[in-house]
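Repro case for the chain-ordering regression, as requested:
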Amino acid sequence: MKKLHARNLLAALFFLFFVMGSSYAQQRVSGTVYDGETNETLIGANVLVNGTTVGTITDIDGSFSINMPEGTNELVVSFAGYSEQVIAVDGRSNIDIRMAAGELLDEIVVVGYGSQSEKEITSSVVSLDAEDFNQGDISDPAQLLQGKVAGLQVYNRGGDPNGRSTIRLRGISTVGANVQPLVVIDGIIGGSLDNVDPNDIETINVLKDGSAAAIYGSRGSSGVIIVTTKKGSNSGEAKFSYNGQLVSASPFNSVAVLDGDAFVAAGGTDLGSRTNWTDEVTRNALSHLHGLAVTGGSGNTTYRISGNIRDVQGVLDNTGFQQFNTRLNLNTKALNDRLSIDFTSSYTNRDQQAGFDEALRYAVLYNPTAPVFGDDSPFPFNSDQFGGYFETLGLFDSFNPVSIIQQNRNDGKRREFNMGALFGYKISDGLTANFRIAQQQTDFSNVIYYPTTSNFNGNATSPLRKGLAQFYNQDIETDLYEGYLNYITDLGLGSLTLTGGYSYQQENFNDNFFQLGDFPNDDLDFSNAIETSQDLQNAGFIAANSNASPDAKIIAFFGRANLNIDDKLFVNASLRREGSTKLGADNRWGLFPALGVGVDLGRMMNLNGFDLFKVRLGYGVTGSLPGPSGLSQETRNIVNGDDGSVSTNKARAANPELKWEEKAETTLGIEVASGRFSGVLDLYTRDIDDFILLRNVDVAVFGVPQRYENVGALNTKGVELALNYDVVQNSNFNWNTGVVLSSYTTTLNEFVGDSIQVTGNLGAPGQNGTNMIRIAVGEEIGQIWGPVYDGVDDNGEPIFADLNGDGMRIGAADQALNPDADFQVLGNGLPDFELGWTNNITIGDWGINAFFRGAFGHSLVNTFRAFYEPRISTQSSYNFVTTELAVDGLTAARYSSLYVEKADFFMLDNLTISRGINLSGALDNARVSLTFRNPFILTSYTGTSPEPSLVDGGAEDNGQRLAGDGNVLAPGIERRNNFFNQRSITFGLNLNF
Amino acid sequence: MNNISKFLFALALLTLPFACTDLEEDLVGEITTDIAIDGVSSGGGDTGGGALTAVYASLRDAGTANHGGYYATQELPSDEMLIAAKGGDWFDGGILIELHRHTYGANHAFINGTWAQTYSAINTCNEAANNSSLDANQIAQARALRAYYYWRLMDLYGNVKLITQPETDAQQSTREEVFNFVESELLDVLGVSAITSGMDLSNSPLSEDPNAYQINRYAALGILAKVYLNAEVYTGTPRWGEAAMASAAIMDSGLYQLCGDGCSVTNLGKRAAVASDPDELSGYAAVFAPNNEGNPEHIFTVNYDEVTGPNMNFSQMNLHYSSQFTWNLESQPWNGYATLEEFYNSYEDGDARKTANFIVGEQLDFGGSAVLDFASDDGNLVLNYNPNINELAPNSLREAGARPGKFSFKQFGRNNMDNDYPIVRLGDVYLTRAEAMGRMAGDWNAGLQFVNALRARAGVSEYASIDADEFLAERGREMFQEASRRTDLIRFGRYNDAWWEKPASESFRNIMPIPFDQIQAADPAFPLSQNPGY
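-- result from build under test --
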């Protein structure tokens, strides 16, 4: 791994201190300690006068100054991860020292409000840098981490270029909102990964457990991802670096359906044509990405400026985005070097074509004998009404997929602007005051337009009110202000670092929505056609909505102490008191403590053969806040009378006792390194109490059937293992392999008022009220629940097994919780364990990176099969899904074990072959690479993607679009709106000059 | 300034705007209880024009004429309406079949939804009834409507909680206690201690204004008449006399007339190209038409409006997808509700109500051409509603079943319909009076003239005499689609009979289960116990 240096540290932790042991100093020597390879300065290097106790450590610039006692001449300079050097001063007053890397590298790891040497850390923290990241066409920084960190789940479920990854650290930590980890970018809390280009990332640190995350208080429960962007260096002249990629992607693993002939043979309605709808709406997508960065600096000032351009196509026609991103990092010093200023700013401008994933869904179920265009209709068909396309009129939930994706548009524009400045002032030796001010602004707007000829939401079948346009815009502004002190001192038996401060964050959110339709025609661009909308003449057709958040504030006071005793015993403790406006008036403030202890047994007991044998134990309390504001307050709906009167009724019941969700977590970790081998084992247990959920309350009392309450408790127990081994190490051939493994189980311990329930509705057509996931106190999260398929009867209906042997077969959907019914657990939506396997091979100038990953033990409900595999005679106008699991003679669609499939998979996620080229002349060096993503996957799952579905988006039908937050208590359902996965080849070029 | 002073000064400038620990949340973006728009009432927050707007709007939100709530829970277990499973379509986990076959349980979504919607409506009434800034008439209206909702709950669930103040809890009451509450509340707002012949209503805070969108004295009497008519079911004690006297008082007021000859409205569903479409709807059909506002038969109605009064969705619920082209509907319908063939056939040809209540046969679009179903499953693309339903499940034909059309559709209809929905109408009062008189006398012919008045309006021959079965059948024909059939079947002891695709059911089915979600949600100090049999 690469070394981290001073310039990477936004919040300086190591400070100069003197041991005032010598009163007879004679000669004063000053100097700077550098990394011999990169010329970056090293903060906190030990400088000791040989043979004495006189010493110092280098300051934030890597510089030191020391008085040489009489009769001494040598300095001993040491720094974790580097070979110790003994240097003769020989009368010089200024010495630059260049350190060479030692055998075991000790990294500096950025943690909250500072950084620590890796050995001092007593919690589970994983640090990754560019060499560890996933390769290929990655536009979402979360994908850099997929499979790389034990216990970190990153799943995309499909190749939607505008989709976002689902990220979970150690499973679900909350049931309400904010299940994604807290992101901290260059010290700025609550950053958006949307505004970071993967090319600009130096390191990503993942704080996995509560004892590390507790310093982030009420937002730390879902884990913390700390992103540090690349900084400049004052190595003299400006250095340029170019990264370019060319990507070709195609869909794979679509849903197997009948072709036209087979469909007709199966009794389907023959509309005369033969159409492969999936082929009609997908494409071979070409993307290209370019990034250019320049770094440099002089004197006290360094800079790095980068720009990135991405033009990405999705495999679904008319999807993709074009993004421009730029970032500036500027670091300087003032006031006699006592004041350091680190400024960062970034801007992202993204135009996206989100398209309509419904086109993929309808491509699966649309009649394969239907023509694309109305002119090919077997019966008279007025295709002008539908823009020339054919439509199967009169059929529920059926829309020509080509028409959907070609006629309609769903275009968004996102602009993000962030800036932040950190001022560090060295008040005295060892004591530094830090002040950060930061602001993030996000503007997003989206236009969805269905022309008058679109059957899909465009109302083309209607004689009037044809066409629909929806406009949405939102802006979010977040201001952050923090002030904190760092103090470092030597207690004699070890060093003590203290941190304490105040944090204030305010978020304001506004959005507006309106929609109208009824355009005279599509001759004008719709934005000009708005003024001709007949909806302007008709009451009640224009829909409009706007929201403004209150000032959502989070205010905190925090402190931390780190004690390092002789590099053998490490103690870390922190405390954060934090309040939020989002909570009930009675419970706004919370206290979040943490304590961690680590012992380097290798050093303490002089274990032979071990470079490191550290055991650590950490405990921490963190919280989660609800996403939306106002949940603790009563709100009202406006009710209009036809006489113009206005009144209100209750929309939401107040809950002044609403409090944060609390997570208490204990992690026991063992870190071992010996020669070529290293490994980390983490065992943890976490208790989550008071999770916030919209729960059923007594409607007779509250007047509304649900309100937000702290309703339950979860426990997760897990184990994580990371192993690394240098299989081959010689001058021309190196092979490093690493494996991460993780496993966890989450149990529901309490659920006030809803001790048992089923959720995850299958949906229309015909399977509403069919809930597939069981949630019960004392049981695991993620249980797929249903009747067991036991054959087909003469009517073509499925027979359900009589599981309790009472002679009755009770499998009706609303009997799911009847103790006498025949239901059982059919699988679990969450994997038993997950695996990531990295291989880095270098042979001379060649490099090979092969990354495999897998998840095992989870199941998925294949909803495409559940709806469309049975050969329903009256449903002869939908195509039939056909897999090897299909049952002959089954003609009724009823959810059962038949549609719950094991979804274990093992895949080669990416394979990169690269070659470095040393160049003379204008270019310093270059690297070319070829990356294959998803080249192969082993799975028995018959749906589009065996990756675990950690969150359920809910059912949707008849062209409705999904809305609202996903249900994290209903994992394990593959919905019909899944964006097909893609397989890609990327050609990459990296030039440094 | 020296360096540290400079820094501290800069720090002070930076810090001042943020030094704060105030966490008050001011919900600027939402409507809260302290809303202070002039003339806006906070569920009865002041006496502005909208003081009872939310109270009456609650009828529309309480599932009165849409899918999944009170209407569905009353209609689908009866012998007048069903939803058949059409392939995968409309199976919905079997809950619709369960209603038809009387196998519903405590987890049934509609049974839970009806409960929640009704109590939400009661909460809105409670806010108004406890609002001291309302006048006596307004409070009486809110209390009367609340009593009506408690009648719905008592009729469906039997034993429920009587809550009369927002955010207070109460122990579960017996059905008889709820009956007594409903009775006393209605008597109180009528200003009398009992229903008697020639009683003096002048002490009632309710008005005599015949505006059917508000509860006046006769609306309250009409609700009370329904309660008394079913009293024996609820308490074991019949109250026929009071039912008859309350009905008589409404009729004797002279404020209301049956919509008969000369009572007509423009036919808003007419297709210019279809000559057989009448220009006007008259008589029975006019009572339920999209433009039925102010019909002389209306005593208390729900004010549905396509813009300001949403949630009547019969066109969506009942019609086949392709019927969109007959009425130029805003959206594609859902192809759900249909009538049992036997019920359809209980109407004789020539009965005006048969024509008004059902849509059958081949369908023509706006231009007079046949409406096609390109996904037709009977080999014929023409949409032809066939009163015969081939099977309940799994493969009912898509066009099977006569479709309820009494609340008739208008051209260019929106998803939300305009027709006002009667809670109390004079035709119903006629039948209540006739039945109460017949039962009290032990002779079904005692009130026959009121039955015959309705038959005459429908253009069918008058009865010479009538028995209980015929009375029930006649009541069914008149009251179709008015959410009355389940209650009527129970009162006549016929709810547990077998009918098409429905075996005989046990008598505990006459009371719906207390929803499982509600039992779980109840405060353990105020538990809800399940009804027998569930």
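Ordering looks correct now. Residues 15 and 296 of chain B are 72 Å apart (CA to CA).
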